[in-house]
Design brief:
By secondary structure, the chain is α/β, with parallel strands linked by helices. The protein is built from ten helices and eight strands. The protein has a single domain, classed as TIM Barrel, CATH 3.20.20.150.
């Protein structure tokens, strides 16, 4: 098992975890709670002055860990593939503007074509973004999703597939995000985390928990310690692979979104220390 977490120096919270709050509330309330790392979901930046957002982050001593999310590259339509590429170009510039060093990629899938074709288009698109990633100084992390999302959200469904894709692309600007919600079930997870670390491709680590029963596969995630994921064991694998970066709490939960978000933030802190 991993060594105990004794403070909040590695704790990062995704803004989608506290979905009822806007970007200003997330920045202010996380900072007040002693959480000084944040991963920002792009929809909160729509119609915002990014210079003002950056200034507020700095005023509250907040470090941006990642911008979420880019990707959704494949499509049977060439025009829509080009639109997706342009959106990811915008995302890289947004990340640069708020000093996010990483753009998380949910790679996408089109059910109207094969998984192989989807993966081919994902590879082509990421390669096309490499020059801009280097120019902006923003890395990209491929996040494999649970196989239940293979039809429409990501043709990359295992850490093995993500590792292979990162190795094929072979760029210091491309790595992998390990999200326990999507990967905890994989019997080869420890081996693939070692592979990821050996290649210096382990860019991010996301935590939450898997509830039993799960009422909704998208918006019924659990807070750490509420479900069946062996979080401390997986954290030990990640750390043994060389990752000592921020531990990002990413919980999609209608149940928890409907609670007092300030109290919820305190629950997150307790769960982080006790169950992560």
């Amino acid at each position: 098992m991993a060594q105990p977490l004794n403070d909040f120096s590695r704790l990062c919270v995704h803004t989608q975890t506290t979905k009822p709050w806007d970007i200003d509330q997330c920045i202010s309330e996380y900072s007040k709670a002693g959480i000084h790392s944040i991963s920002i979901w792009r929809h909160l930046l729509e119609n915002k002055d990014l210079k003002a957002v950056k200034a507020k982050l700095e005023q509250n001593n907040m470090e941006v860990i990642s911008l979420v999310r880019g990707g959704f590259f494949p499509n049977i339509s060439k025009e829509k593939r080009e639109q997706a590429l342009q959106d990811n170009i915008t995302a890289l510039y947004e990340a640069q503007a708020i000093r996010a060093p990483l753009l998380v990629l949910v790679c996408g899938a089109d059910p109207n074509q094969s998984l192989e074709k989807n993966r081919e288009q994902i590879t082509t698109a990421i390669n096309a973004l490499l020059p801009l990633a280097e120019q902006t100084g923003v890395k990209m992390a491929i996040e494999p999703l649970h196989p239940m999302y293979a039809g429409d959200k990501s043709a990359v469904t295992t850490l093995e597939e993500a590792n292979t894709l990162a190795e094929i692309i072979n760029s210091p600007w491309v790595g992998v995000a390990v999200d326990v919600y999507h990967l905890w079930w994989d019997q080869h997870l420890e081996q693939q985390i070692k592979r990821c670390g050996k290649n210096n491709h382990l860019f991010a680590f996301h935590v939450c928990d898997w509830l039993v029963p799960t009422r909704d596969m998208l918006t019924d995630r659990g807070l750490m310690g509420e479900g069946c994921i062996e979080l401390k064991k997986i954290r030990s694998w990640v750390e043994n692979a060389g990752f000592l970066g921020k531990i990002e709490v990413e919980v999609f939960s209608e149940r928890l979104w409907n609670t007092d978000q300030k109290m919820y933030l305190e629950q997150i802190k307790k769960a982080y220390l006790s169950a992560t």
